[in-house]
């Protein structure tokens, strides 16, 4: 089976859109999905900075949405041909954290999703000349017309929903909304500060508004702050003097929860100082180095924890988010700009330049 895909062959190279060949169909526990849309996430682009740990050449993409065209059977084959699905991250399904309904903390998460897990003796996906690609990215490799995926990554959705919009629910929007809904369990009136108003941060703002929480959004870019305000947050420039004090004033004495999407140590320290006693700071962005903490930041019962994939079980959270969207309470579609697959490099440039919050590639355009 031959189809088009966006291939990254070198860490500093542009993507090339080329013919690839699937030499065998789905095995037990796998699905073949015709991709209708795939979001471009910062994690896809971070491969360029992975110091060679993420193997190349590779087909990236891990926010796919599409239609199942073939199944491999097996005990996980609850999804059938013709089903509409959103694809999320991969997990092993049997380690202690997977069994405890925490698949984002799977013992094999990094290997399966980032560094070439599920290696094959005979590669099934190659380029037109027979050259092998790295094992599938995040269980998907969805920057392509078709993706061979682990069945556990797929979440069935209502076929009436627009697949062109749904892909980012598998990772970016899942992460931000899940931090608010699952990790913090924020409720009416809870004060929350969100550092960084990109795709993850704005999803957190939307989720906070949907639950009745009071969100303050901090960002350096006025246009991102305007978006956060549109979605119900109080905007606050990251460059404002006395940021912790201003957050405390806006949150009636301090935030109960803070979500950092920036990995900026100065902002993280500001957020900790702005927390009320027993407040919690969640970190979702990978820190580039050490995180020096100022004196007093962890006093009075404050805690810091890492949040992966919004602490989500995708099969539970994705339907919740689509229901909120249908009710007009999670307007994530307002963050999306679509691009044909051939424009993958333009989408990356626009994302890097901040001209778009969430690029989505349409392989059949």
Question: How would you characterize this protein structure?
Answer:
The protein has helices at 42-45, 96-99, 109-113, 163-166, 172-184, 199-211, 222-230, 243-250, 265-274, 314-326, 344-352, and strands at residues 2-8, 16-22, 30-39, 58-59, 64-71, 84-87, 125-127, 146-150, 154-157, 191-195, 214-219, 234-237, 255-260, 275-283, 303-306, 336-340, 358-362. With 365 residues, it is an alpha/beta fold. It folds into 2 domains: 2-170 and 331-362, Medium-chain alcohol dehydrogenases, catalytic domain (Quinone Oxidoreductase, Chain A, domain 1, Alpha-Beta Complex); 176-307, NAD(P)-binding Rossmann-like Domain (Rossmann fold), CATH 3.40.50. The strands form 3 sheets. Strands 3, 5, 6, 8, 9, 16 and 17 form a 7-stranded mixed β-sheet that branches. A 6-stranded parallel β-sheet has the order 12-11-10-13-14-15, with helices on both faces. Strands 4-1-2-7 form a 4-stranded antiparallel β-sheet, with no helix packed on it. Strand 16, helix 11 (344-352) and strand 17 form a beta-alpha-beta unit. The longest helix is centred in the middle third of the chain and has 13 residues, at 172-184. The mean pLDDT is 94. This is Aryl-alcohol dehydrogenase. Its cofactor is Zn(2+).
Count of the separate structural domains = 2
Reading the helices and strands in chain order gives: EEEHEEEHHEEEHHEHEHEHEHEEHEHE
CATH class of the largest domain: Alpha Beta
Mean pLDDT: 94
Termini separation? 19 Å
Overall spatial form: globular
CATH topology grouping of the largest domain: Quinone Oxidoreductase, Chain A, domain 1
SS summary, helix count: 11
- How is the main sheet built? 7 strands, mixed
- CATH architecture grouping of the largest domain: Alpha-Beta Complex
Cofactor: Zn(2+)
Keywords: Membrane, Metal-binding, Oxidoreductase, Transmembrane, Transmembrane helix, Zinc
Domain Alcohol dehydrogenase-like C-terminal: 199-311
Pfam families: ADH_N, ADH_zinc_N
């Amino acid at each position: 089976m031959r189809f088009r895909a966006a291939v990254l062959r070198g860490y500093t190279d542009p993507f090339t859109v080329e013919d690839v060949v699937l030499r065998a169909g789905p095995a037990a526990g796998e699905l073949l999905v015709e991709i209708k849309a795939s979001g471009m996430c910062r994690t896809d682009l971070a491969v360029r900075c992975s110091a060679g740990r993420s193997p190349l050449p590779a087909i990236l993409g891990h926010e796919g949405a599409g239609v199942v065209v073939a199944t491999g059977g097996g005990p996980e084959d609850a999804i059938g041909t013709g089903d509409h699905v959103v694809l999320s991250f991969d997990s092993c399904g049997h380690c202690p954290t997977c069994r405890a309904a925490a698949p984002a903390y799977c013992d094999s998460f990094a290997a399966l999703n980032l560094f070439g897990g599920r290696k094959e003796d005979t590669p099934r996906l190659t380029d037109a000349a027979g050259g092998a690609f790295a094992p599938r990215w995040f269980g998907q490799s969805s920057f392509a017309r078709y993706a061979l995926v682990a069945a556990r990554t797929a979440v069935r959705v209502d076929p009436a929903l627009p697949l062109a919009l749904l892909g980012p629910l598998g990772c970016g929007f899942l992460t931000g909304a899940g931090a608010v809904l699952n990790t913090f369990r924020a409720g009416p009136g809870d004060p929350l500060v969100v550092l960084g108003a990109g795709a993850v941060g704005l999803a957190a703002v939307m989720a906070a508004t949907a639950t009745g929480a009071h969100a303050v959004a901090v960002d350096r870019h006025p246009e991102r702050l305007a978006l956060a305000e549109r979605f119900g947050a109080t905007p606050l420039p990251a460059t404002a003097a006395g940021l912790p004090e201003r957050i405390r004033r806006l949150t009636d004495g301090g935030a109960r929860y803070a979500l950092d999407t920036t990995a900026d140590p100065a902002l993280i320290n500001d957020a900790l100082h702005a927390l009320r006693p027993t407040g919690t700071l969640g970190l979702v962005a990978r820190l580039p180095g050490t995180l020096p903490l100022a004196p007093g930041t962890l006093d009075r019962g404050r805690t810091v924890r890492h949040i992966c994939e919004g602490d989500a079980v995708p099969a539970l959270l994705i339907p919740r988010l689509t229901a909120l969207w249908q009710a007009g309470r999670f307007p994530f579609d307002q963050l999306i700009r679509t691009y044909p697959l051939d424009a993958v490099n333009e989408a990356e440039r626009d994302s890097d330049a901040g001209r778009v919050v969430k690029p989505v590639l349409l392989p059949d355009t």
